[in-house]
Write a structure and sequence with these properties.
- The protein is α+β, with helices and mostly antiparallel strands.
- The protein is built from 16 helices and 17 strands.
- 38% of the residues lie in helices and 17% in strands.
- The strands form four sheets. The chain has a six-stranded mixed sheet with strand order 2-1-3-4-9-8, sandwiched between helices. A six-stranded antiparallel sheet has the order 10-11-12-13-14-15, covered by helices on one side.
- The protein is globular and about 80 Å long.
- The N and C termini lie far apart (66 Å).
Length: 478
């Protein structure tokens, strides 16, 4: 039996690993949580978290074998399963790490879409590298099924090859629901009202609550509930004063929160919808407020999902969208505009995200009109470069499902973007700058032959031929 040099797989890091970076972005790690890295390698994630004031510890069979295994709020099993050549041992390690997780286990492994490289030969269900290490490249669904089967718990995809496993079902559902709840600004105060001004300090929390939930609070959901009832007779009467000074746009807020909840419930079918008793109380109250019953809400959600599966309807929504750049085959939208899209398009993107998780670095979404697929496109210099180059694309085919990654970062002639204002919403900070550049380029006839300007080299040739160059987002003569 060939000896596998597992200790050689540990990498020296100067920044957080992908799973820890995602957990930080999701707010799972802070000064009040404890973190344990199961298979910490050289311990860089532990060191970097400790520098942020987060209680962190780790254990590694090769590099920290004498460190104690500590039960913690969040346990990370990052890029450990893919270096274990024995499938049975992978399950055992998963279960050992899970036993230490008080709230959440983070599991990460390398994916087939990243592409095996530097290997000498097939070995078991993976590859043996030239340095004597083993690498297993998982499919996203394969990794999800392994975690679910070994732990008897349904994992949540949060990135390519990264999953969360929640100890508490209510916390799991609250986390998933929060990912599809949009940020909505409360309607602005339009009129002066003496009663409102006199009680503004206790009315503002009420405004914030209704903006967030789309409904009035119960007594135990708002600390100011008693004060509002005393001052106005009831919370309902208090909110009528709010509506008097802000107008009727609260109807739109309620509709938006209802749509967010439908998107969440429709996607919940993939993992099997839990009984309503397993939802956080706030979600239970949302469901009853918007749909009267859980059964009615699930029926509406199923109708939502059925609409998302109708290709002609999706094509119609793409063509009718007031946001994004439409082409004969797709609708392209900046990620900042996702919340403003039709709920069915948000649901389709949610299906892709349920499978692959959040694709860090992707800033353009491509909704394919001719097939059930969503692409995540990465343009790192979207804001700073006039015509940014495509660094990579991840296409998620929803039938299957499966994913395909294409890397353009080393290409000497990558695809580039034009007319950036078409991808972003009206309130995007640099939209006016993008628009001015497009008008300049149109006036100079640079877009007269679109087929010849789609890549960096062809665009540079066009600029040179017309005697022009770019200085930031301004077109000038050479």
């Amino acid at each position: 039996m060939k000896r596998i040099a597992r200790h050689k797989t540990a990498l020296r890091r100067h920044d957080f690993s992908r799973p820890v970076r995602i957990a930080l972005a999701d707010g799972l790690l802070n000064g009040e949580t404890t973190f344990f890295d199961f298979g910490c390698g050289l311990g860089d994630d532990v060191r970097l978290l400790a520098e942020r004031g987060i209680g962190a510890a780790g254990w590694d069979p090769s590099h920290a074998p004498d460190s104690p295994r500590i039960r913690s709020d969040v346990v990370n099993l990052g890029y450990v399963l893919n270096v274990i050549e024995d499938p049975h041992e992978r399950r055992t390690v998963l279960q050992e790490a899970w036993a230490l997780a008080g709230r959440i286990l983070v599991v990460a492994a390398r994916l087939a879409i990243e592409g095996p490289g530097g290997h000498d030969a097939c070995f078991g269900d993976g590859y043996l590298t030239r340095t004597g290490t083993f690498q297993k490249y998982f499919e996203q669904g394969e990794l999800r099924d392994l975690v679910a089967d070994a732990l008897s718990s349904s994992p949540v995809a949060v990135g390519p090859g990264v999953f969360y496993v929640f100890r508490d079902g209510a916390e799991r559902e609250a986390f998933i629901a929060s990912r599809y709840r949009r940020t909505i600004a409360a309607p602005k105060i339009r009129k002066s009202d003496q009663l409102f001004e006199r009680h503004v300090e206790i009315l503002r929390p009420l405004i914030e609550f209704v903006s967030a939930r789309g409904r009035l609070p119960e007594a135990d959901e708002l600390p100011q509930y008693g004060d509002l009832s005393t001052a106005f007779g009831s919370v309902k009467r208090a909110f009528s004063v709010v509506r008097r000074v802000t107008g009727d746009s609260w109807v739109a807020v309620r509709q938006a929160r209802s749509d967010d909840l439908l998107v969440y419930l429709a996607l919940a079918r993939f993992g099997g919808r839990p009984p309503i008793s397993q939802f956080p109380r706030s979600l239970q109250l949302d469901i009853r407020s918007f749909f009267s019953s859980y059964t009615a809400a699930c029926k509406r959600a199923d109708e939502f999902m059925a609409s998302a599966a109708r290709a002609e309807y999706v094509d119609q929504l793409c063509r009718a969208s007031s946001i994004g750049k439409e082409t004969p085959a797709a609708l392209y939208v900046h990620v900042s505009a996702l919340d403003k899209l039709h709920p069915i398009l948000r649901l389709i993107e949610g299906c892709a995200r349920t499978y692959i998780g959040t694709n860090i670095g992707a800033n353009i979404l491509k909704f394919h009109r001719d097939k059930p697929s969503v692409s995540y496109l990465s343009y790192p210099s979207f804001d700073t470069e006039a015509h940014p180059a495509l660094a990579g694309s991840l296409i998620v085919h929803l039938r299957g499902p499966h994913a395909l990654f294409r890397d353009y970062s080393e290409s000497d002639d990558p695809p580039i973007l034009h007319r950036k204002e078409e991808f972003v919403p009206e309130d995007y900070p640099r939209r006016r700058t993008f628009e001015r550049l497009t008008k300049q380029e149109e006036a100079c006839g640079l877009y007269s032959n679109p087929a010849t300007i789609g890549t960096r080299k062809s665009w540079e040739r066009t600029l040179q031929r017309e005697g022009r160059k770019l200085r930031g987002h301004v077109l000038v003569r050479r």
